[in-house]
Amino acid sequence: RKEVEQDPGPFNVPEGATVAFNCTYSNSASQSFFWYRQDCRKEPKLLMSVYSSGNEDGRFTAQLNRASQYISLLIRDSKLSDSATYLCAVNRQSYNQGGKLIFGQGTELSVKP
Amino acid sequence: DTEVTQTPKHLVMGMTNKKSLKCEQHMGHRAMYWYKQKAKKPPELMFVYSYEKLSINESVPSRFSPECPNSSLLNLHLHALQPEDSALYLCASSHYSGSGGEQFFGPGTRLTVL
Q1: How far is CA B27 from CA A7, A47, A85, B103, B113, in A?
Q2: Residue of A nearest to B31 (CA)
């Protein structure tokens, strides 16, 4: 079993749709959680950190459920420009070692006109 | 400014060549990372440098040799690579605790081994 699991998709949605991605992690020692966006042949870009209280940035909402060990990302009113691969990542950070970021396999989103 | 720079953008090398990848950040981050990413796969951690010391080596073959000359620079020396080492090599950096360990990635070096 992979340490971080995501539905690889692809998710094909029309513009304006609401789309949700889920990600589960198996290591309860995981300390911090992130969503990254990666465009084709580009580097991952940090989209949001994910907190237990939930956090929102415009059309994007992220949630963390530590008890069930999953994180989610909701995109409302999707735009053509949201088309990308969305990677969840969990981090076990220890002092003096830096953070070990473990990625899910990524979910491909394609927003169509 | 969350910029991490990497050079070169593209690199083609033969199996007997020696080459180096370079990474630089000026965000005052004290942790720097090398990741390898194959097509349609997520990034996989290779090395972590913490306060300029190697703190994590994810059982990477010795043909990859990292170096951290100072807190802003990270190199990856390549020697006697195999065609299956062709991939996107990503550098990242982060602060320590307090920021949640957000890692910021450079644009990567796309490596082809012939």
Answers
A1: 34, 19, 26, 11, 32
A2: A98
Strands A107-112 and A11-14: parallel
pLDDT by residue (tens digit) across A60-78? 999 999 999 999 999 999 9
CA angle centred on B33, ends B94 and B108, rounded to 5°: 105
Q: How many angstroms separate the CA atoms of B95 and A37, rounded?
A: 20
Cβ–Cβ contact A26 with B under 8 A: no
- Across A59-106, the runs of DSSP E, i.e. the strands, are 60-65, 70-75, 84-94, 98-103
pLDDT tens profile A8-56: 889 999 999 999 999 999 988 788 899 999 999 999 999 999 988 889 9
